[in-house]
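Researcher: Quick sanity check before group meeting.
Model: Go ahead. Protein one:
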Amino acid sequence: MKWLFLVVGVLVVLVGLIAAIGVLLPKHHTATLSARFSKPGQAVWDAISEPPDWRSEVRSFETLPARDGRRTWKEIDQRGQGVTYEAVEESPPMRLVTRIADRDLPYGGTWIHEIKPDAGGCVLTITEEGEIYNPIFRFMARFVFGYSGTIEAYMKALQAKLGRGSG
């Protein structure tokens, strides 16, 4: 029984330490990643602006009514968790800015997708301007998952769909 109290005590101290470090970390972060595609910019635009059937982590996709004239949708992940997004800016086929429209999540932010022509294809650069409100999630993002993990998975899935460019 003494060991049980010791283990529980250590876990409480560890979670408290993680939360304390998380409080000291900034809520806002920026992460950027670029990838080259052998397809033209319009093909990349079509993939990123239409239903994400190419992303394995998205179980389903639902188009929602527009908000203030902006396109909105909901993505449901494999665990059944949904996130609502809003297209803040759309300049086909060069720039798409999306924002998490849910206000009750422990995180939020925008993704800026910029597509630039390149010899024989294009380069997609995604910049995440994110916020993590929960200090424990902030700690995990900074020290465990990394700020660019979601962008990396997204790019990998998009490259699988469209083909990786050279270079």
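Researcher: Fine. The other one?
Model: Protein two, sequence then structure:
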Amino acid sequence: MSAHALLIPELDEVIERGSPERRAKTLRRITTLFLDGAGQFNDDHLGLFDLVFNRLIVGAEVKLRTELSHRLAPLGTVPAEVVRRLAHDDDIAVAGPVLARSRQLADADLVTIARTQDEAHLLAIAGRGRIVEAVTDVLVRRGDRDVAHRLADNPGARLSERGFFTLVERAKTDSVLAEKVALRTDIPARLFRDLLLAANPLVQQRLLASATPEMQAEIRRLLANVLQPTRATSAPPDYATAQRTIEALRQGGAFDETTVVEFANKGPYAETVSAVASLCTVPTAVVDRLMRAERPDPVLILCKAAGWSWATVVALLAARPGGLDTSTSALDAVHADFDRVSPGTSQRVVRFWQMSSDDAQTRAEDGAEV
């Protein structure tokens, strides 16, 4: 009789000639036996269970392998080879539990899996409580948006400077990722500065709202020392040049609401105003005054009349010289105002603004109710 047959009589026969149902029943009995004594087995015992588990799961259905993975994943001491085998399984239902939780997986295995498996496997690894730089480098390079977000959110993930650099580059076109990366306490100072300066005003203000007091002070220092002097010494908006840019875009056919959002997010104020003025057929000087108004109502009316989305409203409000209060209560209130304003009323108000006279504009602003 072989050593592993000592666990359950006739185990060899079950493994060699047992039906799938009998093998499944035996695997569950072995698993229960192991769990009952987990933490008390020595290396020889673990090796014996490893041998039995690996023989029983050959050809086992996904449901059975998944069940075993869930039961072994949280244990501190488990048969190493079967956990490794489960982690390398192509089916994420099987691999996911041990990839996300098992402490017995070697970093080398995680690197291999991250290099060869699909996004679901990478996402499971990205949520582990501890991830070394060799693994995160692969996840950052191969992972999709969800993997990057989970990794940036994970304080147990150690990121190399190369990994941070890659995330910062990706964050320049992903405002959610930008916030997550910027709020990590281990981001190198140089890359934090680059990320903050590349972020649009809305992201900058959200970072101020959600950062710790120490980080808020650093953000304010950077904005004061780098951004504000630039704005203070910059020339007044060059609308003549901006209007030529807009006209070229219009003639090329690549000119719509998306153009407005792109200009608003990137920060060229003159082009943003000129794009809104052109699409809404409102004089540029009028749009400039509306954008600088203390309340956001004029911007809401312009967007509602044009049939633009809430995302466009947020981008334009953030691009205003005064910026945008990004606290949850403030945004919710503005969003509610935007939902409530009537498209018909907005279009009538905009027709006043289109006449360009100061009297018409004043009447429209005074009479517009959101």
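Researcher: One line on it for the slide.
Model: The chain has three domains: 1-105, 159-234, 239-367.
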